[in-house]
Amino acid sequence: MADLPNEVEIQEEGPREGFQIEPRPIASADKIRLIEALAQTGLRHIQVCSFVNPRLVPGWADADDVAAGFRPAPGVHYVGLWFNDKGLDRALAHSDRLTLSGSIALSASDAFTRKNLHRSHAENLEAMRRQTLLHLSKNVPVRRIGVMAAFGCNFQGDITPAQVISALRDGFRIADESGVTIGNISLSDTMGWATPLRVEKLLGEVRSRWPHQQITLHLHDTRGLAIANAMAGLRMGVTKFDSTVGGLGGCPFAAHKGAAGNICTEELVLLCEEMGISTGVDLDALIEVGRMAEEIVGHQLPSELLHAGSLNSLRSKATGVH
Amino acid sequence: MADLPNEVEIQEEGPREGFQIEPRPIASADKIRLIEALAQTGLRHIQVCSFVNPRLVPGWADADDVAAGFRPAPGVHYVGLWFNDKGLDRALAHSDRLTLSGSIALSASDAFTRKNLHRSHAENLEAMRRQTLLHLSKNVPVRRIGVMAAFGCNFQGDITPAQVISALRDGFRIADESGVTIGNISLSDTMGWATPLRVEKLLGEVRSRWPHQQITLHLHDTRGLAIANAMAGLRMGVTKFDSTVGGLGGCPFAAHKGAAGNICTEELVLLCEEMGISTGVDLDALIEVGRMAEEIVGHQLPSELLHAGSLNSLRSKATGVH
């Protein structure tokens, strides 16, 4: 079996992903309560909000209130999300509490770029080039290339590693031309097309070309395979994952109404910790926060672990000899 | 990466597992409807009912009606479950339509045997010895040793491979003494303690001692890791899995109220088929049956795939070049 990493870094995206998709409005105070509770679990990277157009994403009309409202905990990095200059300017207003860093965000699927961004791939490259220079002009570093739909796309079907490599090459070209140094490649299974074998194949291809880049996996559990895909990533030495507590969030894309969202943080933490991979997270504390998240959204979340409880809580009560 | 098998055999246990745990009564006609629909999906092994004491499991008070009521499809093996001589006699009354076969059923956790069966391990061995002879006296073959709680136990904590090996040795001793030939070892993660590494370790230990036995994995998704554990089993060459459509069922054990049940058949089929492992199952047809199961039980089932739909259904509509 492949060597597993000693530790992984988890970026918790529950607040941002979760609250943009809930059908009923969530009070800013509840969003803040969740963010503050997450910071007490040992998570060190929390995405707190999305600076998007409130007409497009009403759930984040209060992004500025949330970003300004939570009490930052020492040692925790809080990040926001934005897609354009207006969003960046809003994020900059909170640079005292948010860690600001830009991304060259591409998609391996032209059909997805057209559907999601209403741009051709070439137009998107041009937009990313402009956005990279804009970030630099405002002293916000750009260190990451993200590739969405890296395993498949509802609108285009299967995506090959070659298509992802091609998108990454485009991203590195923009980085070179803009004079920025990329340190992280983020591969997203945006619509739940990955399998463990596809993860291994793609990671192998990316690694062989860019051996010194850190790789992040952003996995969705749309079809229930996210945890198996995460395991495949761990086997390939991936040390960075995005996830959401309770599996907060969902899938806004056509044909996925009611489908699950991101891989669930507590199940990822369980997988890692039970195999000796350190996450820095107190799992029982995180499960409590997952229960708080369910209470806030007012419905059951996809996490199974949330409803079963951790193994350590049972170990401490077990009567047997270990 | 390890070689994966070319094909796997899935035993669908949704009707039996699912309907014993639902809080409200399920009509016999609905149980039969589900069984008949499952048989049209390409599944070749379906566990249809449990011949248990109706006072203990009211959900199966109608086991005889269900066993007598469904229309068997050609080429499909239907099985039942029983735990004692009374149950076996009831099953024998349906030997024209059920494939009858006995098991030496043990647990790797003494604490679980006491809690679940109200017997010591030694008493359980004695009961299994009697039951094996009883099966033989009625011309019902005994070909399998099953070990419950093979990865961990809520009452005893972690279970080591050595404890499972010890239970298996006890089972093979009973088989030898009774003159039966075992062909299958079934390892159950009854309470959701397995991880991919534990699966690999245990399978390695079992394989090295009994290299010619077929191994079945019976996985529960109590903490969301079942599909990653199944993947670990596939990597180790496991070709037989138990599962339930939609993830029907649940966990009757203390501290797991509301927890998930077995690994979900359609997600297991997706995992296999997307990696080129043949299951014989028409996934889109199975997803339709999963939706029927949700309608019958009257609530959402744990399966994510059920709510997202298959990849093939999207591939056929995708506009992109593959």
In summary, what is this structure?
Two copies of one chain form a homodimer. Chain A has 13 helices and ten strands.
Overall description:
The structure is a homodimer of 322-residue chains. With 322 residues, chain A is of the alpha/beta class. Chain A folds into 2 domains: 160 residues, Alpha-Beta Barrel (TIM Barrel), CATH 3.20.20; 142 residues, TIM Barrel (Alpha-Beta Barrel), CATH 3.20.20. In chain A, the strands form 2 sheets. Chain A has an 8-stranded parallel sheet with strand order 3-2-1-10-9-8-5-4. In chain A, helix 2 packs across helix 3 and helix 6 runs parallel beside helix 7. The longest helix of chain A is centred in the middle third of the chain and has 18 residues. In chain A, 53% of the residues are buried. The mean pLDDT of chain A is 94. The interface between A and B is large, with 58 and 58 residues.
Question: Can you give keywords for this protein?
Answer:
homodimer; 322 residues; alpha/beta; TIM Barrel; eight-stranded parallel beta sheet; two-stranded antiparallel sheet
